[in-house]
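ligand=coenzyme A
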Amino acid sequence: MTYATILYEAADGIVTITLNRPEVHNAMNERMRQELTRCFGDLATSDEARVVVVTGAGERAFSAGADIREFVEPQVPVRFRESRKRVDFRQAMDRCPQPIIGAIRGYALGGGLELALACDIRIAGEDAQLGLTEVNLAIIPGGGGTQRLPRLVGRGRALEMILTGARIDAREAWRIGLVERVVPAADVLAAARELARTLAEKAPVALRYAKEAVVKGLELPLADGLRLENDLATLLRTTEDRVEGAKAFLEKRKPRFTGK
Ligand code: COA
């Protein structure tokens, strides 16, 4: 798969997507948004891809958000209507069955942080600076930030970040639960890949259903979430991998999962 604004690498079941506009701190223009939508849409039907890592090119930024140069032209109604029809790429990420790990160095601002928020697990470098800075540009987060941030860190902390448009550093982000891990800046991608390898060794269908149960379950009343969990757990009892997992345990060897 070739793209103009992102790099796509796939090896050993791990897909790495690199936002690749380092000259503008990986700011997201319309082309990048379209390519990310296509890329995550395609991943939804891929059996080979087991885990996805998302990162930014260069050492200074994950992404500094929407390309502000595109803001200079006011949006005409027809463009607005077109954009209403589009699937936001972060929703395509929600539909992506594989776990998505965000590897965040440097700036993750505005839409860049919203992209990180749509990842399942976030690993930040000690140099990370995170913020929903839209209010400083007379707009509000429009890529899920007002919804995903409070679900992750709570209403008060989310509102403080969104209303001030201030940036926080990696330690503070870890303290409030906005990132799962902080590592030395140079180790971010290696740490994300190591976690990805660990996940890629698990039975693929179990991995997907575990993500589905958690992500969809969070949107459901508890009784419906428990029902979903029960259905997925029951389905998993029908897989060949379940038999293989049990045999491998009893034979004291590593399992060979096939995704069947
Ligand atoms: N859109 C378009 N271009 C951007 C950008 C963005 N979101 N963020 C950075 N750039 C560009 C700069 O214009 C600059 O381009 P130039 O070299 O042609 O002048 C280049 O990236 C480097 O950025 P610069 O501002 O010089 O780097 P810095 O280290 O001094 O500051 C930031 C880095 C991220 C703090 C600063 O660029 C910034 O505040 N960016 C905007 C972030 C933002 O508000 N995002 C939310 C958008 S809704």
